[in-house]
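User: I'm putting together a small comparison set for a docking exercise, and I want a reference complex before I start. The sequence is below, and the ligand is beta-D-fructofuranose. Could you produce the 3D structure with the ligand included, as structure tokens?
Assistant: Of course. I'll restate your input first, then give the structure tokens for the complex.
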Amino acid sequence: MRTTSTDVPRPRFHFTPRRHWMNDPNGLVHHGGLWHLYFQHNPEGSDWGNMSWGHAVSPDLEHWTEHPVALRHRVGEQIFSGSVVAPRSGDDVLTAYYTSAYDDGHQAQSRATSHDGGFTWQTDPGNPVLDRGTTAFRDPKVIRYDDDRTARWVMLTVEADDRQVLLYSSDDLVSWEHLSTFGPLGTTGVVWECPDLVRLSLDGDAADPRWVLLLSTNPAGDDADPAGSSMHYVVGHFDGTSFTPDSPELRPLDHGRDYYAAVTFDNAPDGEVVTVGWMSNWRYAHAFPSTPWRGAMSLPRALGLRTVDGRPSLVQAPPAFVRARLEHAPTEPLAVGDSPADLSLSGHSLVELRWDPSSTGVISLQLRGEAGSFVDLVHEPRTGTLRLTRGGPPAESVHPDFPSTSTLPLPGDRPARLLLSVDGPLLEVFVGDGEATASNLVLLGSAGVTASLETARPATVHVTFVGGGGGAGRDAPPPGDPPPPRTTPRAPPPDKQPATT
Ligand code: FRU
């Protein structure tokens, strides 16, 4: 059976545009007590085109309010991805850098300023302000660099086809000077997009700062990898001029299929490093059957750097509101015996599982939605891997490359913890404290989700639900998809948060 667009429920605790197409997050900045999210947007349709910057704000990274388009395409020029920086002192002016993608095929960096806290923007009459006369020069990300000797703004951009990141510096956010170039390295046959460079203390030691380069890579050419677009990171050092990687390896940042173009918020409070990514894949984004919107943002994530298996590795924690909800929800021991144990979830739930792989052996969680749609998670302690598969007729009908299996590292020699966030078509999996993540679009429909848990040997699995349809256990009531819930939730569900303007 073919799924239809009405089968895709709108996420409730993730940002989606009220209407029409959305891709990358742009201009992420915290200013005036608000988190601003600009985004690649077609204000006139549900396919990519007329690229402009949409705009939404949130006081808490959970509840978003959409505002009028901030930077609109014009004749001969689209507004591609870029960033915003908050003033560090003096006047209260926000500065945006974005890529002007001209109809003649050339791409260059342009500037705009906002004097009303990010709601309206004035483009610079001198635009473009950084132009190499090339056709894939894009995605300016401006960061602040300060050390004992150097204090400057640094802009990262890509020459996408050359797989290079170009770094520039500025003292006044107006004129820019080339500093250095990083790349190419890693797989050929991809373009590099949406770079970011973040400073993180290794294992929380402020005396040991490292720099992590974030990159989005999209397969290009006739023989393009059907897995499509994905994100990578490189750990290294940055002295304000050049980035030196610890090893010339692009490591996967998310193990699912739908996490792209994530960048960090400028000026986040308390020195937190917070990202948001676009939950789709250029391979099939155009075919995803949601309406009247197309494109969703991930949960915001707090980045950290931890030594895992002897090397500095990125960890991505779920946002504070998710952590708080889980802490306030009851945890129940679920005895899984010779046959599967059923759990009933709403289609908008958080579920945390804790178990001891040495007792359970192989453990699998199967989610079943409408029309034969499924998501399977299987942990194999022996190989230390978690396999995530999505499939069934609705998935097959999106695109031939939509059904997928992804693999994440999940050690089998110590107690395991897994967080699943299911919000309509958005599934995000966090292993442990965020040592690995996987983000996938899923098509489970709107009638709730049945989940069953199986273990190779009888064992206890500890389950925490938020917004579940009724709880754990063989006799759990049937799933519901509030509102209205068909069973009593065990904790308040994540609030409904459609775009409100
Ligand atoms: C990444 C990207 C960027 C570009 C934008 C256009 O997804 O291709 O490189 O600026 O999308 O919408």
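The first strand starts at residue 20 and ends at 31. The longest helix spans residues 320-328.
User: Thanks, that's exactly what I needed.
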